[in-house]
Amino acid sequence: MNRRYRHTIIAGNWKMNKTAKETKEFAEEMKKLWTVRPKWCDTVICVPACNISTATKAFKELRIAVGAENVYFEPNGAFTGEIAADMLSDLNVKYVIVGHSERRQYFGETDQTVNKKVHAVLNAGMSPIICVGESLEEREKGITDELIALQVKSALSGVSAEQVRRCVIAYEPVWAIGTGRTATAEQAGEVCKNIRSTIRTLYGARVSRSITIQYGGSMNEKNAKELLAQPDIDGGLIGGAALVPEKFLAIINAANQDQE
């Protein structure tokens, strides 16, 4: 983390978990446990769309921002089941996850549709959490850096320097999501460093220094401190551990660690 230049952001991704009732229960448990407010990091929880209104009310006292897990890039129309960016913004959503590997794998999202969604989110006044990452096969072929640079460039195509400052990039190695496997701190840090280098090439050093880059590959309460100690990892996009208040709070506390 480098707090001199950028925000540390811990964001939970609940995926398809928790009812409205369970969302309220989670918030109540967090209130009991969270006796000391984080000094150094912002906290976000991205919830299923049907829980957004409940979460906004439940998390207000905790000062946890509410995020969405997906968005459609068209502003309106005959797109049954989809949600437009303005609809999310109207519900006080602050962040939207875009391009998560599960969306790419199960629902056919491409670099092109991710780019369209990034623009939709920015135009609605929200911040996209843009996910990039490689498969195990791609890592073993030695093309991680080239692939992720392409994903970053594609996602940010047409995005201005002013807009990109509102973006968050989440590096999530596909081979480490939901598998219990985690990149080493050094591996994750090196990829995040290369992501920052790609942004520097596109927008210059000043902008690249200001961008929050998260690690999103099975960060948990046990490995968070080591991962967050890497200079180019500015937070986490947390899956399973974000569903358990004690574990999520432990990661927030790890992000609140003192820096030398």
Describe it for me?
- With 260 residues, this protein is an alpha/beta fold.
- It has a single domain, classed as TIM Barrel.
- The protein is built from twelve helices and eight strands.
- It has helices spanning 20-33, 52-58, 85-90, 101-107, 111-123, 136-140, 144-155, 161-164, 185-203, 205-210, 224-228, 245-255, and strands at residues 8-13, 41-47, 65-68, 95-98, 127-132, 168-171, 212-215, 235-238.
- It has an eight-stranded parallel sheet with strand order 7-6-5-4-3-2-1-8.
- Helix 1 (20-33) links the parallel strand 1 and strand 2 (41-47).
- The mean pLDDT is 93.
In short:
The protein has 260 residues and is α/β, with parallel strands linked by helices.
Radius of gyration: 17 Å
| Record field, number of beta strands | 8
Strand content: 15-25%
Specify the CATH class: Alpha Beta
SSE order, as H and E?
EHEHEHEHHEHHHEHHEHEH
Number of domains: 1
Helix content: 40-55%
Distance between the first and last residues' Cα: 11 Å
Judged by helices, strands and strand pairing, the structural class is alpha/beta
The main β sheet shows up as:
8 strands, parallel
